Amino acid sequence: MLSLLLQANFEVPSMLQDLLDSEFAFLLLLGIFVLEGAMLMYFMPSELVVPGAIFVFGASIETAIVIISIAVLGATVGQLALFMVAKRGGREYLLQKRWFRVSEERLDKFDGWFDRWGPIVVPVSNTLPFTRGMLTVPAGFSEMRPRNFVVLSALGTLSFETLLALLYFVVLPYL
Protein backbone atom coordinates (compact mmCIF):
# COMPACT_ATOMS: atom_id res chain seq x y z
CA MET A 1 0.00 0.00 0.00
CA LEU A 2 2.74 2.45 0.97
CA SER A 3 4.66 1.62 -2.17
CA LEU A 4 1.57 2.52 -4.21
CA LEU A 5 1.39 5.89 -2.47
CA LEU A 6 5.07 6.48 -3.12
CA GLN A 7 4.80 5.52 -6.79
CA ALA A 8 1.66 7.59 -7.36
CA ASN A 9 1.86 11.32 -7.50
CA PHE A 10 0.57 11.58 -3.94
CA GLU A 11 -0.18 15.24 -3.41
CA VAL A 12 -0.56 16.79 0.02
CA PRO A 13 -3.43 19.33 0.18
CA SER A 14 -2.08 22.86 -0.19
CA MET A 15 -3.31 24.05 3.22
CA LEU A 16 -1.56 21.12 4.93
CA GLN A 17 1.58 21.63 2.82
CA ASP A 18 1.68 25.31 3.82
CA LEU A 19 1.48 24.31 7.48
CA LEU A 20 4.20 21.67 7.05
CA ASP A 21 6.44 24.21 5.35
CA SER A 22 5.91 26.82 8.06
CA GLU A 23 7.83 27.44 11.26
CA PHE A 24 4.90 25.88 13.13
CA ALA A 25 5.35 22.39 11.65
CA PHE A 26 7.58 21.04 14.39
CA LEU A 27 5.42 22.74 17.04
CA LEU A 28 2.41 20.89 15.62
CA LEU A 29 4.39 17.64 15.77
CA LEU A 30 5.30 18.38 19.39
CA GLY A 31 1.60 18.85 20.20
CA ILE A 32 0.77 15.52 18.58
CA PHE A 33 3.38 13.79 20.74
CA VAL A 34 2.12 15.48 23.91
CA LEU A 35 -1.36 14.11 23.12
CA GLU A 36 0.11 10.70 22.36
CA GLY A 37 2.05 10.65 25.64
CA ALA A 38 -1.03 11.65 27.63
CA MET A 39 -2.97 8.80 25.97
CA LEU A 40 -5.33 11.29 24.31
CA MET A 41 -4.45 10.67 20.67
CA TYR A 42 -7.19 8.37 19.47
CA PHE A 43 -7.16 9.36 15.81
CA MET A 44 -3.87 7.70 14.87
CA PRO A 45 -1.79 4.77 16.13
CA SER A 46 1.34 6.05 17.86
CA GLU A 47 3.42 3.58 15.84
CA LEU A 48 2.73 5.62 12.70
CA VAL A 49 3.68 9.09 13.94
CA VAL A 50 7.49 8.93 13.68
CA PRO A 51 7.58 7.04 10.37
CA GLY A 52 4.89 9.38 9.00
CA ALA A 53 6.79 12.46 10.15
CA ILE A 54 10.01 11.18 8.58
CA PHE A 55 8.12 10.56 5.35
CA VAL A 56 6.55 14.04 5.38
CA PHE A 57 9.54 16.08 6.58
CA GLY A 58 12.22 14.25 4.62
CA ALA A 59 13.92 10.93 5.00
CA SER A 60 17.32 11.98 6.24
CA ILE A 61 19.15 10.90 9.37
CA GLU A 62 19.33 14.51 10.55
CA THR A 63 15.58 14.98 10.16
CA ALA A 64 14.94 11.68 11.93
CA ILE A 65 17.07 12.82 14.89
CA VAL A 66 15.09 16.05 15.15
CA ILE A 67 11.79 14.15 14.94
CA ILE A 68 12.89 11.61 17.56
CA SER A 69 13.98 14.46 19.85
CA ILE A 70 10.60 16.14 19.45
CA ALA A 71 8.89 12.78 20.08
CA VAL A 72 10.81 12.17 23.30
CA LEU A 73 10.14 15.69 24.59
CA GLY A 74 6.46 15.72 23.65
CA ALA A 75 5.59 12.19 24.78
CA THR A 76 7.46 12.67 28.05
CA VAL A 77 5.58 15.92 28.76
CA GLY A 78 2.29 14.19 27.97
CA GLN A 79 3.12 11.17 30.12
CA LEU A 80 4.25 13.40 32.98
CA ALA A 81 0.89 15.21 32.82
CA LEU A 82 -0.97 11.89 32.99
CA PHE A 83 1.38 10.68 35.76
CA MET A 84 0.57 13.81 37.81
CA VAL A 85 -3.18 13.45 37.22
CA ALA A 86 -2.94 9.83 38.42
CA LYS A 87 -0.83 10.86 41.43
CA ARG A 88 -3.15 13.68 42.48
CA GLY A 89 -6.52 12.38 41.33
CA GLY A 90 -6.16 8.69 42.06
CA ARG A 91 -7.61 5.58 40.51
CA GLU A 92 -11.32 6.28 40.97
CA TYR A 93 -10.97 9.79 39.59
CA LEU A 94 -9.36 8.52 36.38
CA LEU A 95 -11.80 5.66 35.91
CA GLN A 96 -14.70 8.15 36.04
CA LYS A 97 -13.28 10.36 33.27
CA ARG A 98 -14.60 9.79 29.75
CA TRP A 99 -11.28 10.78 28.17
CA PHE A 100 -9.50 8.00 30.10
CA ARG A 101 -10.21 5.01 27.89
CA VAL A 102 -8.61 2.27 29.93
CA SER A 103 -10.98 -0.23 31.53
CA GLU A 104 -10.74 -1.14 35.18
CA GLU A 105 -9.71 -4.68 34.19
CA ARG A 106 -6.82 -3.46 32.03
CA LEU A 107 -5.76 -1.02 34.72
CA ASP A 108 -5.74 -3.90 37.24
CA LYS A 109 -3.48 -5.84 34.87
CA PHE A 110 -1.00 -2.97 34.55
CA ASP A 111 -1.14 -2.29 38.30
CA GLY A 112 -0.11 -5.93 38.77
CA TRP A 113 2.81 -5.52 36.38
CA PHE A 114 4.00 -2.44 38.23
CA ASP A 115 3.61 -4.13 41.62
CA ARG A 116 5.53 -7.18 40.41
CA TRP A 117 8.37 -5.56 38.47
CA GLY A 118 8.58 -2.04 39.88
CA PRO A 119 9.66 1.13 38.08
CA ILE A 120 11.68 -0.73 35.41
CA VAL A 121 8.41 -1.54 33.62
CA VAL A 122 7.95 2.15 32.72
CA PRO A 123 10.72 2.23 30.07
CA VAL A 124 10.00 -1.37 29.05
CA SER A 125 6.31 -0.64 28.44
CA ASN A 126 7.19 2.57 26.61
CA THR A 127 9.36 0.55 24.25
CA LEU A 128 6.69 -2.01 23.39
CA PRO A 129 3.84 -1.45 20.94
CA PHE A 130 0.32 -1.79 22.38
CA THR A 131 1.46 -1.33 26.00
CA ARG A 132 3.11 2.00 25.34
CA GLY A 133 2.39 4.42 28.14
CA MET A 134 0.11 2.03 30.02
CA LEU A 135 2.38 1.92 33.08
CA THR A 136 2.23 5.71 33.43
CA VAL A 137 -0.92 5.53 35.52
CA PRO A 138 0.23 2.79 37.96
CA ALA A 139 3.51 4.69 38.31
CA GLY A 140 1.47 7.76 39.26
CA PHE A 141 -0.41 5.74 41.87
CA SER A 142 2.89 4.63 43.40
CA GLU A 143 5.35 6.54 45.51
CA MET A 144 7.59 7.15 42.47
CA ARG A 145 9.06 10.63 42.32
CA PRO A 146 8.18 12.65 39.20
CA ARG A 147 11.87 13.17 38.35
CA ASN A 148 12.49 9.41 38.30
CA PHE A 149 9.39 8.90 36.18
CA VAL A 150 10.54 11.51 33.64
CA VAL A 151 13.91 9.79 33.18
CA LEU A 152 12.37 6.32 32.81
CA SER A 153 9.62 7.56 30.52
CA ALA A 154 12.07 9.43 28.28
CA LEU A 155 14.38 6.39 28.03
CA GLY A 156 11.52 4.15 26.95
CA THR A 157 10.22 6.68 24.46
CA LEU A 158 13.70 7.19 23.03
CA SER A 159 14.11 3.47 22.43
CA PHE A 160 10.61 3.08 20.94
CA GLU A 161 10.87 6.03 18.56
CA THR A 162 14.43 5.13 17.53
CA LEU A 163 13.30 1.60 16.67
CA LEU A 164 10.43 3.00 14.59
CA ALA A 165 12.81 5.32 12.72
CA LEU A 166 15.22 2.45 12.08
CA LEU A 167 12.37 0.31 10.77
CA TYR A 168 11.42 3.14 8.44
CA PHE A 169 14.92 3.32 6.97
CA VAL A 170 15.41 -0.47 6.83
CA VAL A 171 11.97 -1.64 5.68
CA LEU A 172 10.81 1.19 3.40
CA PRO A 173 13.40 0.59 0.68
CA TYR A 174 11.95 -2.91 0.21
CA LEU A 175 8.34 -1.79 -0.23
From TrEMBL:
<keyword id="KW-1133">Transmembrane helix</keyword>
<keyword id="KW-0812">Transmembrane</keyword>
<dbReference type="InterPro" id="IPR051311">
    <property type="entry name" value="DedA_domain"/>
</dbReference>
<feature type="transmembrane region" description="Helical">
    <location>
        <begin position="64"/>
        <end position="86"/>
    </location>
</feature>
<feature type="transmembrane region" description="Helical">
    <location>
        <begin position="149"/>
        <end position="171"/>
    </location>
</feature>
<dbReference type="Pfam" id="PF09335">
    <property type="entry name" value="VTT_dom"/>
</dbReference>
<feature type="transmembrane region" description="Helical">
    <location>
        <begin position="24"/>
        <end position="44"/>
    </location>
</feature>
<dbReference type="GO" id="GO:0005886">
    <property type="term" value="C:plasma membrane"/>
</dbReference>
<dbReference type="InterPro" id="IPR032816">
    <property type="entry name" value="VTT_dom"/>
</dbReference>
<keyword id="KW-1003">Cell membrane</keyword>
<protein>
    <submittedName>
        <fullName>SNARE associated golgi family protein</fullName>
    </submittedName>
</protein>
<feature type="domain" description="VTT">
    <location>
        <begin position="45"/>
        <end position="161"/>
    </location>
</feature>
<keyword id="KW-0472">Membrane</keyword>
